[in-house]
Amino acid sequence: MADATLEHDVVQHGLPGAYEAPLFGAYSKKVGMWLFLASDSLTFGALLFAFSYNRIYTNPWPTPFHAESIGNATIMTACLLSSSLTMVLGVFAAQRRDRAWTRNWLLATMAFGTAFIVLHGMEWSKLIGEGLALPGFFTLLGVSQPSGAGELANVSKNVPQFPQAFFGLTAMHMLHVTIGVIYLGVVAFRKWFLPILGVIWIAGAFLIPSGNVFHYPIHVLGIGLLIAAVILFLKPKDYDAHDVEVSGLYWHFVDLVWMFIFPLVYLMSTKVM
Amino acid sequence: MHDVATHDDSKGQYFWVWGALLVLTAVEVVLAYRQVFQPVRMLEILLVLSVIKSALIIAYFMHLKFERALMRWLLVISVTACFVIMYFFFFPDADRIVRLGVK
């Protein structure tokens, strides 16, 4: 960001000529994050193209999203957009070296991200409860098809490309949001975040019933805990304004991807009552 | 180069961008839910709005607007070029299907 920009004539470490001036005028970790985001945007681009391909090839395309689902997805969108604003404010606080407010804004960003995940999980649960699922999903979970399953059960049976495309794309995005929340937690709280994440993971693993959509995905937190612990113990450091800024780039990208998923997946499959 | 003070002074612009993004989202929802346009036209309009929203996010929230021109253009052109190549693979068949009549 602003103070992270380097001029070409800056010579670091007092060794003239020892280090080449940065081509992009930015710190290497920021350039690295941008390059990762460029490649990740192609991943999501491919998924969105695949979704669109399914969409136009399938006639009729299911339209399961009525007012309640659209309202829910709109609130989720507002959560992500608001989280981007709090993230920007967090970066400003970090640049002011205001540790307390950096942590507060990052916490607010994580809260919005968590709200997004929970709302999305509720949406998934509702759709699964109405019978929308991947082939073999209920067998895998060891539960019977919901008794109230109706129209969407037929969709799962006759148009399996819809649940495959829907769950595939949104799961990939939700995974990115989850990684983002963990990333921000590590930057905001460092090692103190590990026990917090551990408690949430263990509590979730014990408390979430087997039929719930989060029953298995909760273990993503365990994997996240392991990776975060390895990073924090191998390279313990006090994250500075540049680290906050780089984590912010990732977070805004997650928001950015949703700006395409929301209209393509939800709004183009709206069911007008 | 911009210093921290400059950005703090212009913090208000980020609230405007946030407001614009919320308004654009509301416009998308209303257009889609009321089914104002036919599906293909609706898809075009929603995608244009999404591109505007993503441009706002990239330029302001991700701060690319304030980066060096080389970084700005290299990132935008390279990613856009990749999407154009993907589109060339996708477009001929998509066009054929649309001509057959998309619902």
Describe this structure in words.
The complex is a heterodimer of chains A (273) and B (103). Chain A contains nine helices and no strands. Chain A is mainly α and 273 residues long. Chain A has a single domain (28-269), classed as Cytochrome c oxidase, subunit III, four-helix bundle (Four Helix Bundle (Hemerythrin (Met), subunit A), Up-down Bundle). The termini of chain A are far apart. Chain B folds into two domains: 1-66; 68-103. Chain B contains four helices and no strands. Residues 1-6 of chain B have low confidence and may be disordered. The longest helix of chain B has 33 residues, at 69-101. At the A-B interface, helix 1, helix 2 and helix 9 of A face helix 1, helix 2, helix 3 and helix 4 of B.
- Estimate the mean pLDDT confidence of chain A: 85
Main structural class of chain A = mainly alpha
Name the shape of chain B in a single word: flat
What fraction of residues of chain B sit in β-strands? Answer: under 5%
Sheet-strand content of chain A, in percent, reads under 5%
Unreliable stretches of chain B, pLDDT < 50, 5 or more residues? Answer: 1-6
**CATH superfamily membership of chain A:** Cytochrome c oxidase, subunit III, four-helix bundle
Distance between the termini of chain A: 47 Å
> What is the radius of gyration of chain B?
18 Å
The helicity of chain A comes to 55-70%
Query: How many structural domains can be distinguished in the coordinates of chain A?
Result: 1
| CATH fold-type name of chain A | Four Helix Bundle (Hemerythrin (Met), subunit A)
Low-pLDDT parts of chain A are: 1-11
What's the gyration radius of chain A in Å?
21 Å
**Distance linking N and C termini of chain B:** 51 Å
Which two chains touch over the largest interface?
A: A-B, 55 and 56 residues
